TrEMBL record:
GO-annotated biological processes: translation
Descriptive protein name: Large ribosomal subunit protein uL24
Keyword RNA-binding: yes
Source species: Pseudoxanthomonas composti
Described function: One of two assembly initiator proteins, it binds directly to the 5'-end of the 23S rRNA, where it nucleates assembly of the 50S subunit.
UniProt subunit comment: Part of the 50S ribosomal subunit.
A GO molecular function held by the record: structural constituent of ribosome
Keywords: Ribonucleoprotein, Ribosomal protein, RNA-binding, rRNA-binding
Family note: Belongs to the universal ribosomal protein uL24 family.
Coiled-coil region list: none
GN (gene name): rplX
A Gene Ontology term for the protein's cellular component: ribonucleoprotein complex
This protein's record includes keyword Lipid biosynthesis: no
SUPFAM superfamilies: Translation proteins SH3-like domain (SSF50104)
Residue ranges annotated for the KOW domain, each copy included: 4-31
Length: 105
């Protein structure tokens, strides 16, 4: 099945501790994705002089399940579901379910 959410999409967290937060998708790993400034966790990192890592407590984004986010529709200002429309030439186009307008040009 084609992914409804891709890298670079603006998304809204719809459930969990960060509910309501918005951010851009940084990375997609199967059914999990990393969203900027969402799901911030503290990692205790060992110093590594060869790699130039100082060590200590580092805050970074952890992955979040794809079912916990929805694509942000800038026209309505709300989260929206994504569907697919197959064009005459056979290409698949992502569209917003509420309005049917194309998500990507």
């Amino acid at each position: 099945m084609a992914n409804r959410i891709k890298k670079g999409d603006q998304v809204v967290v719809i459930t969990g501790k960060d509910k309501g937060k918005q951010g851009e998708v940084v990375r997609v790993d199967g059914d999990r994705l990393v969203v900027s400034n969402v799901n911030i966790v503290k990692r205790h990192t060992k110093p590594n002089p060869q790699a130039g890592i100082a060590g200590g407590v580092v805050e970074r984004e952890a992955s979040i399940h794809i079912s916990n986010v929805a694509v942000f529709n800038s026209a309505t200002g709300k989260a929206d579901r994504v569907g697919f429309k197959v064009l005459e030439d056979g290409r698949k186009l992502r569209v917003f379910r509420s309005s049917g307008e194309a998500l990507d040009a």
